[in-house]
Amino acid sequence: MNIIVSACLLGTPCRYDGKSKPCESVIALKERHNLIPVCPEVLGGLEIPRTPCEIVGDKVISKNGEDRTTEYQKGAEKALEIALKNGCKYAVLKHKSPACSPDGVYDGSFTGRLVDGMGVAARLLSQNKIKVLYEDELYLISEDEL
Q1: Neighbours of 14 (CB within 10 A)
Q2: What CA–CA distance (Å, rounded) separates 27 from 117?
Q3: pLDDT tens per residue, range 110-141
Q4: What's the DSSP call for residue 45?
Q5: Residue 146's pLDDT band (boundaries 50, 70, 90)?
């Protein structure tokens, strides 16, 4: 099975801080599946490293006040295009990310406070019938497909 995966979870240093967040359980999926790494933020044209961003209402705003919504939307569209082209039923994305989080994003105050909500790419993938999970939810992938 083809699965879209946040590139940072596979060890690619593409996060806002120029680092990665490798997750062994996600990396282990490659023993049974074809993992397709994506970073919606980079796909949208944002650099590495970059100023951190958070979701404020329907906008994505950087810590220095720049509106980065357009880049996040563009990256989400590109991630969706890749997922659809590869027939992906699942996406395993980075929790708390303004692009990728399927459940819980920072509130825009840059104080570490989480609120209910989805990242821009996670929302678009979900709206297009791709099951979006974060790295601790791998158990939700259908056993028949593992």
Answers
A1: 23
A2: 26
A3: 999 999 999 999 999 999 999 999 999 988 88
A4: T
A5: very low
Helix (H) or strand (E) holding 91: strand 90-93
**Which helix (H) or strand (E) element contains residue 5?**
strand 2-6
Q: Are 56 and 108 in contact (CB under 8 A)?
A: yes
The H or E element that residue 112 is part of is: none
Instruction: Give phi and psi for 56, each to the nearest 5.
Output: -130, 105
For the chain, what's the residue count? 146
Residue 45: CB atoms within 10 Å: 13
Give the CA-trace dihedral at 81, 120, 122, 76, to 10 degrees. 10
Handedness of CA 45, 48, 52, 55 (dihedral sign): positive
Contacts of 116 (CB under 8 A, 6+ apart): 103, 104
